[in-house]
UniProtKB/TrEMBL annotation:
InterPro entries: P-loop_NTPase (IPR027417), Small_GTP-bd (IPR005225), Small_GTPase (IPR001806). It comes from the Eukaryota. PROSITE patterns: RAB (PS51419), RAS (PS51421), RHO (PS51420). GO terms for cellular component: endosome membrane. Pfam families: Ras. The keyword Zinc does not apply. One of its GO terms (molecular function) is GTPase activity. This is Ras-related protein RHN1-like. One of its GO terms (biological process) is vacuolar transport. It comes from Crotalaria pallida.
Length: 175
């Protein structure tokens, strides 16, 4: 519903996190509604767009994905430039990727804008039996760093829409 006062926001959203955590899969699940079992880590023009309509605003997402550069543990400044929102992803079945996620958050704090909307995503919730990082651990770290926390699965689609709605909602409030 495009009533009076309905804002249209264009928002650059960047994906961060170690290789293999599911960044590309999350974007593809959100944008195309599909999951690919053998998602090639290095594939991708690394750019997706999607529109979400809330009662407060319509958000046009420009989603920036890496094309494998995260293997060098840092990304070019242009990747962060102008971003309104960021998602830091780890794989809940790998403690190493959670440790590394904290490095990505620090990288974001160095390069990103002050009022960035930030989400911490524990992906691969379908691998619950192999979980290595507890919910409380993730939640606490997110809270300490001004991020919201959510557990997702690009495979089953659990919480994928919720993730992007949460970002859109926070953007609508902030801008
Ligand atoms: P990226 O390197 O962070 O972009 O990760 P990808 O999206 O390429 O995913 C790496 C691998 O993990 C691929 O084999 C995906 O199919 C798989 N994967 C991604 N998300 C999930 C998930 O939620 N659950 C499971 N079980 N596997 C996933
Ligand atoms: Mg990828």
């Amino acid at each position: 519903r495009l009533g009076s006062g309905n804002k249209i926001l264009q928002a650059k959203l960047v994906l961060l996190g170690d290789m293999g955590t599911g960044k590309t899969s999350l974007a593809l699940r959100f944008v195309k509604g599909q999951f690919f079992h053998n998602q090639e880590s290095t594939i991708g023009a690394a750019f997706f767009t999607q529109i979400l309509s809330l009662s407060e605003a319509t958000v046009k997402f420009d989603i920036w994905d890496t094309a494998g550069q995260e293997r060098y543990h840092s990304l070019a400044p242009m990747y962060y430039r102008g971003a309104a929102a960021a998602i830091v992803v780890y794989d809940m079945s790998s403690i190493d990727t959670f440790v590394r996620a904290k490095k990505w958050v620090q990288e974001l704090q160095r390069h990103g804008s002050q009022k960035l909307v930030m989400g911490l995503v524990a992906n691969k919730s379908d691998l619950e039996p192999k979980r290595e990082v507890g919910t409380e651990e993730g939640e606490q770290y997110a809270q300490e760093n001004g991020m919201f926390y959510i557990e997702t699965s690009a495979k089953t689609a659990e919480n994928i829409n919720e993730l992007f709605y949460e970002i859109a909602k926070r953007l609508a409030i902030a801008f």
